[in-house]
Specification:
about 210 residues; mainly alpha; Glycolipid transfer protein, GLTP; Glycolipid transfer protein domain-containing protein; GLTP_sf; ceramide 1-phosphate transfer activity; Glycolipid_transfer_prot_dom; transport
């Protein structure tokens, strides 16, 4: 019997190791985002692909976890220079390397794809997940993917479960599920906005 995605009487978000709502942003340091907490929250997000329940989502999850690993590897190599994501990238680039910085770019793209899909689905209560995810893919990752990768992601979009089945796996109390998903998405969107500005700046080029 499959383990439920949420504890009795709770929601999926109760099980998450870290929510994006508890990822610190240091406004006094140009909105610096804490590395450890952000990576933990990103890892917790990849669990949603398990809830989506299709093997077709494995490439999506693998791609995201691989990029988390690239960023964390750099953090472990230079912890004092990597307390925030911005510091991590800038110090890596000073060392004439960009493995983790490139990993962060792709991680942000994957998170953007996921957040846009879920936001659209949450906003459009009659829309099926496959429609929301396909639309988000077209607006985010698709332009960056090769002709070999696109079919793998397209297969995942087509394999989305029915909307009602997905939300029921997130919790029994649907108003609470949707409220918590909204709060979680809002926090993720805020951090992605900061990172997109940073990653598109002149400082972050290789």
């Amino acid at each position: 019997m499959a383990t439920p995605a949420y504890p009795p009487g709770g929601t999926y978000f109760d099980n998450a190791k870290r929510s994006f709502t508890s990822v610190p942003i240091n406004a006094s340091k140009d909105n610096a985002i804490s590395t450890t907490e952000f990576l933990e929250a990103a890892e917790s997000l990849t669990g949603l692909f398990d809830v989506l329940g299709s093997a077709a989502f494995l490439p999506v999850k693998k791609d995201m976890t691989g990029n988390i690993t690239k960023v964390r590897t750099r953090q472990l190599e230079a912890p004092l220079q990597s307390e925030t994501l911005q510091e991590l990238c800038l110090n890596e680039l000073k060392a004439k390397k960009h493995v983790a910085s490139e990993g962060l770019v792709w991680l942000v793209r994957g998170l953007e794809f996921t957040s846009q899909a879920l936001r659209r689905n949450l906003t459009n209560s009659s829309e099926e997940l496959s429609v929301s995810f396909r639309d988000a893919y077209g607006k985010t990752l698709k332009q960056h993917h090769s002709f070999l990768i696109k079919p793998l992601f397209s297969a995942a979009m087509s394999a989305c479960p029915y909307r009602k089945d997905f939300y029921s796996k997130l919790g029994d109390d649907q108003p609470r599920v949707q409220k918590e998903l909204d709060v979680w998405l809002t926090a993720l969107e805020e951090r992605l906005k900061i990172l997109n500005v940073f990653l598109s700046s002149k400082e972050v080029k290789w």
